[in-house]
Amino acid sequence: METRITKMLGIQYPIIQGGMAWVAENHLAAAVSEAGGLGLIGGANAPAEVIRDYIRKVKAATDKPFGVNVMLMSPYADEVAKVVVEEGVKVVTTGAGNPEKYMDMWKAAGVKVIPVVASVALAKRMERYGADAVVAEGTESGGHIGEATTMTLVPQVADAVSIPVIAAGGIGDGRGIAAAFMLGAEAVQMGTRFLVAKECIVHSNYKERVLKAKDIDSAVTGRSHGHPVRCLRNQMTREYVKLENEGKSFEELEYLTLGALRNAVVDGDVKNGTVMAGQIAGLVDKEQTCQEMIQEMMTQAEMLLGRK
Ligand code: TUI
Prior knowledge:
The protein has helices spanning 4-9, 26-34, 48-61, 77-86, 100-108, 120-128, 150-160, 174-182, 192-195, 204-212, 235-245, 250-257, 260-265, 290-304, and strands spanning 15-17, 39-42, 66-71, 91-95, 112-117, 134-137, 143-144, 165-168, 187-190, 218-221, 229-232. By secondary structure, it is of the alpha/beta class.
């Protein structure tokens, strides 16, 4: 399944791993890249030197291409944006904002720039600013989300831009990949499925929660604050949504989410922590190596698309 994306990035399969905060560190990124996809290091809210260290570790673990996701709401975004250039990273994706101010620097350094967008308007703007591709991310995704669904967003973005489109949100197996291609995508980005990869360092409680999740087990906190975040339902989301419905502000509820993602990912507190995951968690039911996941999904997708 060669596409403009596989050729542009020099990867074997059109699968990109989401740059998940606290989760997408060197082990997962290197394993996905070794398996023929594109592994990503998630910049999240981490200081630039932490990301530099991850980059060096991935380079030591694989010769294959990999990238870094720059989370634009991070207080360290400016520094991380520079570190990717200093370290010669070839691919950057961005999330949770508009990366315009970094585009010239990245383009001059020969970095392939792939902003994650949740609207046609931002996709078109990114193309004008020189983006090499966009990830069109539907609201089925875990973490910080937009409003449009993958089913509606991907074909509208594909019609609106000439650069290749990568679909994200709600894709968890070969059927999802085939469907994304039918909508006009030339690759997919997946996060939730890789949460339960053997190489993923997320706490075993977190993995268990994803493996046991059912179709309607996710909730969105912060919709009324303009900071919608999808995670698996637990004590924290119930409390948050209750207080949010009572009119409590983002600032008043910050105590519920500060450090909560770390608490879930690192310490395994899946009751009070933030267990970010997408709506496809209900479909994810087995722990496998990244290699096994990618092989299984590509076999299924190729069969469905009649390419084998
Ligand atoms: O960025 C993501 N997903 C994330 S980032 C993250 S870390 C975090 N944790 C807690 C609160 C906030 C962030 C967890 N998950 N996905 C990419 C994405 N970008 N989804 C939606 C957007 C987006 C939304 C609005 C991008 C741009 C935008 O508007 C920018 C503008 O200026 O128009």
